Amino acid sequence: MDTSEHTIETERLILRFWKEEDLADFNEYTKVEGVGEMAGWFHHENLDKSREILNLFIESKSDFALVLKETGKVIGSFEFHESKWIPDSIYSNLKYTTLGFVLAKSYWGHSLMPEAVNTVIKYLFDNTEIEAIAISHFKHNEQSKRVIEKARFMYVMDGTHMSRMGTEFEDKKYILLKNDFNKFMKEATAKL
Question: Each residue of 144-158: b (16+ CB within 10 Å) or e?
Fold first, then answer.
């Protein structure tokens, strides 16, 4: 998905295309030890590293800045990319995307990421040709596991992932099919 052409809003968040002016906010949360490591990359040791990655986000057009509406501050990122395991699975015939996300450590535990993930799922299924959404988390990342489970993704398999840190991690892979999501939404609406 070309993130430069979309903006998604939730109750408390705006997911929008990155801007060069986001550098200070981006560096603020990416330099915190433990944030990047939960997602498979080293925390940023300096502003130059954050600038390099921010420029990649802008060039690739596959990442959103996660902005807190109340303050206008960028507090995380949301990524769309291809999966390496989908082509080798029973889901290979589907149009899909894979989600990845990072949230500033000071905002963990405020239910912001489930809010963002659920809104993005609905947006993708309602406004694009996407038929499936894949997602994964490192086996030790309990926070991401909870977000994924709250969003009703179906566990598919254990696997491994070569991180940007050059380390292989055990991970868990999930998928959410558009048909399953639509069925859930119909049932939820019928209960109202």
Answer: bbebbeebebeebee
Q: In whole angstroms, how large is the CA radius of gyration of the chain?
A: 16
Chain centroid to CA 39: how far? 10
- The CATH code of the domain at 3-191 is 3.40.630.30
Query: Do the Cβ atoms of 125 and 181 come closer than 8 Å?
Result: yes
Mention every residue, 6+ apart, whose C-beta is less than 8 A from residue 155: 172, 173, 174
pTM of the model: 0.88
| Alpha helical stretches, state H, the chain | 23-30, 35-39, 47-60, 112-127, 142-150, 178-191
Query: pLDDT of the chain along its 192 residues, tens only?
Result: 889 999 999 999 999 999 999 999 999 999 988 887 777 677 889 999 999 989 999 999 999 999 999 999 999 999 998 777 776 778 888 899 999 999 999 999 999 999 999 999 999 999 999 999 999 998 888 999 999 999 999 999 898 766 555 667 788 999 999 998 888 888 777 776
Give the count of beta carbons closer than 10 Å to the beta carbon of residue 118.
16
Three-class DSSP category at 67 = strand
